[in-house]
């Protein structure tokens, strides 16, 4: 029997709402991780975008970026990576102070977190936000990544540098980096 | 992820064993309401983890590489493939790298082949995005972006249309797309089908295939059915693409000479050798029967020329039967043609006898 589409939609919303409620109410770290992963995966499908926006899930993901548990950070960042391609979600994330929260996590030891952060920053880059998302500190970070051992990190950082920044910006960042390295080499005078 | 710096480009260097290749333990502690149909590990999939490159482990080392690639080709065009001899493998198994033309094909292949038995072994399939070039990565992100934008645009369009019709109502909803307090349902059937077709891809393969009308209808009809149930409670999109498997397989088997999809020899090979496969879809049986009929018809075709006189009674024209299925119709008309040829050469009793039961259809 063919189900009513509107039934499907409201059931979907209710299910997502149940997940969010469990996430907020539970004390179990394990349950939190499971639910967070579910939500992050649901965020991959545009069918759920509207519901997730209504449930303020972008803010939920942003909150995860300040958690101590690195796995919560990783899943939260993954959720942001999945959501941020959608313009409405992007705006919600920007309003929640997303750029600085995401940029901070570029220094994470977890590769997945860093990869999700780079992609999220790419998605958050608009004409208005470009000065922030491509500020010199970020560019230097990306330059270092583009020389990393990990092929995924190298590729993604290269795409960021090529697509989100102007050549001039990259050149300046390169020069600054060289300047820093040169400064490190100069021995301090002894008194 | 420490690894020796290797500046050589391309995807064919010594492979690293990365954490995302490893199969994680499944989660056993989920409460019932969010347990999926299949036990899964706790993992988040992003566009960075997915890739058109797949690695298949656990392939029995008994010379079944071609069978493996044929199986992969069921899900989409395979651009390249090779064994990964350098990758650590269990005894008596091999590891293969398979590059699909489209990420959506890779997604479908992973979904359907992972943990499945294959010639006595169990396959472990995972994405290997580290084999992507910078350009591969860029295109992957662009494809994903345009797909998401299209979905967003469709959603906005739906909203505007609904608002236009609701103009006279007491609802005070605004047209702002960033308004998060909208509770009205935006998913109409139009959106659903649009969502479905764009869901599985900006992959135009399936919708653009000139499938016979009934099959095409069947595909869309099945898809609409599958919208709700196919996405599992853990949100993995991989489930949502499975409905495409069957129509694609049918399209493949019923039209072996098709070049619509621009398939290479590998693809054609897979359709011609379908009978050697373990997975034999229903239509392949029809195809092999059709082939047998053709072979049976051949001797009569060569013997009965236009020169020979018509011997024997002219049998009444069998009634036109519509089997409501193009492939069956093809088979029936083929049989009819064969019968006509056989009628003109009555001494080939063996062939006639063979066909006789069919006449009762």
UniProtKB/TrEMBL annotation, chain A:
Entries under SUPFAM superfamilies matching the protein: ARM repeat
Matches recorded under Gene3D superfamilies: Leucine-rich Repeat Variant
Domain of life of the source: Eukaryota
Cited InterPro entries: ARM-like, ARM-type_fold, ARMC7
Stated name of the protein: Armadillo repeat containing 7
Source organism per UniProt: Kryptolebias marmoratus (Mangrove killifish)
